[in-house]
């Protein structure tokens, strides 16, 4: 087949997929059929919650905008691979952490990916990617990051569930999802570190991961205050490359092709005690 024809077909295919994505995002969440592998993508922050902010030469860069850009590209790539995708937000609006996880739970999503951007208090020479799975925050920097990302939780504390039975059930679900989440994190970090500094896979107490009933990870896809990381997200070509890497990793996870050797940075400090505090559920 002449290369022009291949290019044309590819372009049409991508166009069809983009249209499909628009239709899917327009559907109410309850309309999604459960036959396909369902990925819920959670673009971190939104609305009044900007997430990390970086200002330079009169321009303001916000984490909430960058996470949405990554999420949309990732959604398209996953749809191209034949999966169902739902975003917890597809516009600049505030969404409670509990509503994000409730959506994924209600839809019985197969995996939950929360997308975030890192930031550091001071100038950072080397950025990089790190992927988190759920645990109590033990490592100091992981704890600091979790505190930052969880700050918005204060607004939603009234919506937390209670009851001993739900606590026990929740604990069992969290235990069951621990290993799959780890495999998913290994797959994603394994792909993303090809283009970015590898800051490893870590464990921290992110409430948005604590609320989900399926394998879940939180990706810190670079630093907003690192120019290379920022440009990677703001440049369409490199952002799409990042989306393809994550989508491929999700596919690898789905087909059980995740790396067998995968280190968790703060694993020695990892011990799940089962003492889930009621307010954390
Ligand atoms: Zn964030």
Give a quick set of tags describing it.
single chain; 281 residues; alpha/beta; six-stranded mixed sheet; two-stranded antiparallel sheet; binds zinc ion
Describe the structure.
The protein has a single domain (3-280), classed as Zn-dependent exopeptidases (Aminopeptidase), CATH 3.40.630. A hairpin with a 2-residue loop joins β2 (53-56) and β3. With 281 residues, the chain is α/β, with parallel strands linked by helices. The longest helix has 29 residues, at 164-192. It has helices spanning 3-26, 63-80, 97-106, 140-150, 164-192, 207-210, 227-234, 236-254, and strands at 38-43, 53-56, 59-62, 84-87, 111-118, 129-134, 198-204, 216-223. α2 crosses α8 (236-254). It binds zinc ion.
Task: Tell me the layout of helices and strands.
Elements lengths: L2 H24 L11 E6 L9 E4 L2 E4 H18 L3 E4 L9 H10 L4 E8 L10 E6 L5 H11 L13 H29 L5 E7 L2 H4 L5 E8 L3 H8 L1 H19 L27
Parallel strand pairs: 1-4, 1-5, 5-8, 6-7
Antiparallel strand pairs: 2-3, 6-8
The chain binds zinc ion.
């Amino acid at each position: 087949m002449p290369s022009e024809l291949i290019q044309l077909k590819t372009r049409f295919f991508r166009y069809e997929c983009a249209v499909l994505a628009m239709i899917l995002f327009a559907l109410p969440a309850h309309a999604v059929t459960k036959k396909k592998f369902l990925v819920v993508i959670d673009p971190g922050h939104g609305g009044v919650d900007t997430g990390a902010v970086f200002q330079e030469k009169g321009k303001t860069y916000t984490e909430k905008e960058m996470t949405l850009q990554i999420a949309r590209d990732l959604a398209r790539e996953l749809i191209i691979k034949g999966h169902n995708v739902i975003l917890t937000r597809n516009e600049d609006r505030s969404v409670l952490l509990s509503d994000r996880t409730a959506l994924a739970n209600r839809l019985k999503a197969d995996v939950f990916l929360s997308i975030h951007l890192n930031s550091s208090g001071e100038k950072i020479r080397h950025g990089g990617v790190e992927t988190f799975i759920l645990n109590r925050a033990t490592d100091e920097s992981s704890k600091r990051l979790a505190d930052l990302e969880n700050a918005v939780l204060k607004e939603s504390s009234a919506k937390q569930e209670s009851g001993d039975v739900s606590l026990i059930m929740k604990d069992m679900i969290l235990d069951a999802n621990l290993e799959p989440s780890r495999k998913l994190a290994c797959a994603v970090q394994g792909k993303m570190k090809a283009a970015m500094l590898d800051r490893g896979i870590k464990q921290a107490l992110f409430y948005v991961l604590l609320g989900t009933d399926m394998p879940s990870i939180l990706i810190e896809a670079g630093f907003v205050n690192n120019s290379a990381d920022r440009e990677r997200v703001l440049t369409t070509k490199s952002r799409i490359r990042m989306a393809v890497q994550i989508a491929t990793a999700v596919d690898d996870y789905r087909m059980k092709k995740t790396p067998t050797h995968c280190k968790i940075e703060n694993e020695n400090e990892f011990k799940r005690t089962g003492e889930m505090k009621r307010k954390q559920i």
